[in-house]
Design goal:
There is one protein chain. The chain is α+β, with helices and mostly antiparallel strands and about 200 residues long. Helix content is about 20%, strand content about 35%. It contains 4 helices and 11 strands. It has helices at about 5-20, 25-35, 55-60, 135-145, and strands at about 45-50, 65, 70, 75-80, 85-95, 100-105, 115-120, 130-135, 155-160, 165-170, 175-180. Strands 1, 2, 3, 4, 5, 6, 7, 8, 9, 10 and 11 form an 11-stranded antiparallel sheet that branches. A hairpin with a 2-residue loop joins strand 9 (about 155-160) and strand 10. The radius of gyration is 20 Å and the shape is globular.
Length: about 200
């Protein structure tokens, strides 16, 4: 079979269309992601260590983080507050850093009206710590939801051998939950909107 120049060019273009660009990242973010991946399949108890009166509901409940699903570029970490399984943290490699999103669902598994808010790294961070200032989608969602002060949110995650921390900061506000990584517990059922 004779391959003409035009058919060769068509083949080359078609192969190029299916080739995927590499998902690049930098060492501290890769290390942070890998550190979390080592916890995959495990669940841990947490406690509110910094908060205000509006956080009392969290303080009175059993808090569980479950590193439920891990792929090479995405982690899904449900955050259970008592019987409320509406929250899942999603950490994703984007090629320009790491993205954190909060997937909120109703008990029927439907998207909550306030869902997928979060932020993106703007610097290298460290293997043990990454910060996620609110992205534009989140800022607009917060304003539309009547909580414009949340547009200044930055979420932080820290991972050390014995402790994982989820922290929210903005001017005049701080919320922090520390999870004990020394004692894994039985993982909870799938969060709302997900299946085991």
């Amino acid at each position: 079979m004779k391959i003409t120049y035009l058919s060769f060019c068509a083949l080359a273009v078609s192969q190029a269309a299916f080739a995927q660009a590499p998902l690049v990242s930098i060492t501290p973010q890769d290390q942070f992601f890998t550190n979390l991946t080592t916890l995959c399949g495990k669940a841990f108890l947490g406690n509110v260590t910094v908060g205000n009166e509006s956080d009392n509901a969290f303080s009175k409940e059993k808090l569980v983080m479950h590193v439920r699903s891990c792929s090479k570029d995405e982690l899904q970490i449900p955050f259970h507050v008592g019987d409320n399984a509406s929250r899942t943290w999603i950490i994703k490699k984007t090629g320009s850093g790491l993205q954190l999103k909060h997937d909120h669902r109703t008990a029927k598994g439907e998207d909550d009206k306030s869902t997928m808010y979060g932020g993106h790294t703007i610097d290298a961070g460290w293997a043990q710590a990454q910060s996620f200032p609110a992205d534009q989608y989140s800022k607009e969602l917060f304003v539309a939801s009547g909580i414009p002060q949340s547009a200044g949110n930055t979420w932080h995650m820290y991972i050390y051998p014995e402790k994982f921390t989820y922290r929210l900061t903005r001017e005049g506000r701080e919320f922090r939950v520390d999870f004990d990584l020394t004692k894994a517990i039985t993982p909870p059922a799938a969060p709302w909107g997900y299946k085991d």
